[in-house]
Amino acid sequence: MDVKNNLHNNKSNPRKLNLLYLGLLLFVTLLTTLYLASSKAIFAFSDWTFHAARVEEIYLNLKSGSFFTFIAARTFHNTGAASFLFYPYIFFYPWAFLRFILSPVNAFYAWYALVTFATATISYFSMKAYSKKSLASFIFSLVYTFAPYRLYLGGAVFGEYLAVTFLPLLFLGIYEVLWGDKKKWYLLAISGALVAYAHILSVFLSLEFAVILFIIKLITSRGISKDRIKSLLLSAGVCVFLVLPVIVPFFTDFIGQGLSSAKPSISYTMGPRYLLLNSFSAQKGWKLSFMLMLTILTAWAFIKSRRNWIIYGLGLFACFLTTRYFPWKLTAGTPFEMVQLTARYLSYASLFLTILFALGSSSVLEEHVTGRKKLALSCSLAVFMTFFSLSSLSVYRDTLKHVQDMPKTSANSTQPAPFKRLRDYNYYNQFNYKILFGAFDYMPKSSLTSVQKRNSLLMHQAYLNGKTLTLSPLIKANQISYQVKSEKAADVDLPVIAYKHTTVSVNGQKHAFRRGNRGTVVVGLKRGQNTVTVGYKASPVFYLSIVISILSWLALLIYLVKFKAKYAQ
Length: 569
Hints:
- By secondary structure, the chain is α+β, with helices and mostly antiparallel strands.
- Helices cover 55% and strands 10% of the residues.
- It has helices at 3-7, 14-37, 48-63, 83-86, 93-98, 104-131, 134-145, 148-156, 158-178, 185-198, 200-220, 226-242, 244-254, 272-278, 290-298, 306-322, 346-368, 373-402, 451-458, 540-568, and strands at 42-44, 420-422, 461-464, 467-470, 474-476, 479-486, 490-497, 502-506, 509-510, 514-515, 520-525, 528-536.
- α6 (104-131) runs antiparallel to α7 and α8 packs across α9.
- Residues 1-12 have low confidence and may be disordered.
């Protein structure tokens, strides 16, 4: 038998076929990443400085021997902001570890490639499990992974960028529990946990579509069996155990503590005309690809099954949610305002519409292409998507050529980080600027009541005996120290945020403190020279949650091994 024909015989040689497609996906991943990395620069826009500061904190803490990061002692202007407690960061560890062997710019692009290939791989196997078609899975993975909106997210919006990696697996899990093999409830538990470890808001957005699918199931099937309800509840319960380290800090340190979070509001919506016309342009951004826009316009003529009509409807609804024609004003004061940017729904529109595009296009191609031509077709699709992605990324590359390098600024600057270029030699300049978006997230609301209070934190200003002092911090992992000299016994208000599990020592001795009107640490000092150290000691419940989570992952792994062995029989 012809080897090339055999490669495309899904029943006789599925492993070689999978390797072929994964090899092509890796090819596109490497070429697009190298295209960006060859610029030897990064454009610091949008949320870049927020996430880069978090990675820098993790890296420096690892360098000093501390695995856990709780507060921002080295970055975020040494304010001790606890964005690490309330914003998941586990998927930033690979980026931080890469810093040990690569330059700052190359470390980022290596991490970018890892996430991209992970997305392509998860997308391929999720679609393979759903459709049982290799070519459709390959097309789905290409179009979904290199969608213009996802390419945009990969430039700076990393929480959402990571969450998109696991959405195909998440909705495969929902499908299996509601319509498919309910014994595969673990897919929903695992994928839900992975999304939660990437981006909490994406969990909320995914739940919206999960509820819609549940309602559709009730209507189309005239109810739902008890076994499927049990599978649904089991997957939800196991998912909670898997993500306990993400959940627990909200109960131990956030609820009832008067802390702020990202401002809930719908700040931007798109018009249908903008979405339509923008999707036919070459660059990445808040849009769908032209392939998916054509799917919207033509798929209705080819859809035959109820299942595909549901997918089509979800894709259209996701597009509708991005626009101003959805009555977003009615969501004022509700949890739905957490969405902030309605463009976030483009990830879900891309997911559903790409399923239809992959199924439709693969069916047409397989009718007219047989034998060794399929191998040539697969390679051609990979090359086409490479050039399509490079076209989308070309504007980013052009920006890197013309934008100025980020200049130096003082260590306690209140100037917002500008949209400038970063190279290896000026990479650290960004950390002296105020983080543009998220600098004050998860701080006490009392610290944000005036510009003066906010800026006093950024400028390291302390208050002692009615005087304002500008102090220089001494930094260790999760720990900030100040040398304070007082002419008499008095309280000092330090520029470090006080949380429920904040710890304070004076001259090496544990010391009581209170929260000041800036939400900062206020501690009584004796006359003379004092060394005040502010740190954070996580609750024992947090460490218990890590143990429970690890044991849950191990138990699930053992279950999967036994399940696979039993399923194979």
